[in-house]
Amino acid sequence: MTGDLGLFGPDSVSWRLHAEPILLLGGFRALYLQALHPLAMAGVIQNSNFREDPWARLGRTSEYVTTVIFGTTEQAEAAGRRVRAIHQRLRGIDPETGDFFRIDEPRLLRWVHVTEVESFLTTATRAGMALSREEIDRYYTEQREAARLVGLDPLTVPGTAAEVDRYYEQMRPELRLTRDSADAALFMAAPPLPHRLGLTPVRLALGGVAALSVSLLPAWARRLYGLPGLPTTDLSAALWARLLRRALALIPEHYRSGPHRDAALARAAAVGALS
User: According to the lineage, what is the superkingdom (predicted)?
Assistant: First the structure.
């Protein structure tokens, strides 16, 4: 739709943040963080074929996120409807109690949402993207729209950095390393690669990305994985993330942008919304 700037628009922090290729690293960080919730992990294990085709799943997730951020309002709403329809059909079994649970339980949807947006923002800022405290809070507030699309009441979702910190404090007693989450963490570090890339340096690069994403986790999350939560790890991770962001910036813009962002920029330019 010509002139439809979507849920956020060019003046949003969301458009600025999600133009960063480094967010791929943030996506990996989010997966490692999400895996520490036993029910969330059980829901993935029992309802997903991610082990058989991890790259297709990653592609679908990336497509969804970019549609929500840069798509038209109708495209974003339609994507949300599809996700809600899928989640409504799915059930899981608590591996500890044997009880059934719904995949679209608000507490699980909220965990996935918060870990995702916090990972995107934290990865970008630690990689050197300059955002003020007000802009950080504004990003979290903007992303309540994304939470609404998956079926959450936006007012139940943290909308500032302080609220995200409090949310994590509340959630930490529920988090632990299970066999499923440990297996998933190892799988993400060395998944099968398409097109015979497993016999190339791509394997080493992917292992480095996985290691860096784990290093970017909060210290308490690294300790749950049995890894040190030392400040030196934080400093080293931030340095490597900054170097990776600078390397990605060398890629020509037309390769980094993507069709959804290109279309969004074209709509914004058509109505004179770009500064």
Answer: Bacteria
Task: Measure the CA–CA gap between 231 and 237, rounded to whole angstroms.
Answer: 10
Of 60, 19, 14, 73, give the one whose Cα is nearest residue 267: 73
pLDDT in tens, 16-75: 999 999 999 999 999 999 999 999 999 999 998 777 777 788 889 999 999 999 999 999
What value does the CA radius of gyration of the chain take, rounded to a whole number of Å? 18
Residue 32 and residue 212 in contact, taking contact as beta carbons nearer than 8 Å: no
For 80, the token pair is 């949300």
Contact residues for 170 (Cβ-Cβ < 8 A; gap 6+):
none
Handedness of CA 258, 260, 266, 271 (dihedral sign): negative
The two beta strands, 91-93 and 100-102, are: antiparallel
Cβ pair 92, 39 in contact under 8 A: yes
Cβ neighbours for 240, distance < 8 A, ≥ 6 positions apart: 212, 215
Q: What is the pLDDT of residue 11?
A: 96
Buried b (16+ CB within 10 A) or exposed e, 34-69: bbbbbbbbbbbbeeeebeeebeeebeeeeebbbbbb
CA–CA distance, 156 with 152 (Å, rounded to integer): 7
Q: Each residue of 184-218: pLDDT tens digit?
A: 998 888 777 776 666 667 677 888 899 999 999 99
Burial of 270 by CB count in 10 Å (0-12 exposed, 13-18 middle, 19+ buried)?
exposed
pLDDT score of 142: 98
CA distance 139 to 13: 5
pLDDT in tens, 118-134: 999 999 999 999 999 99
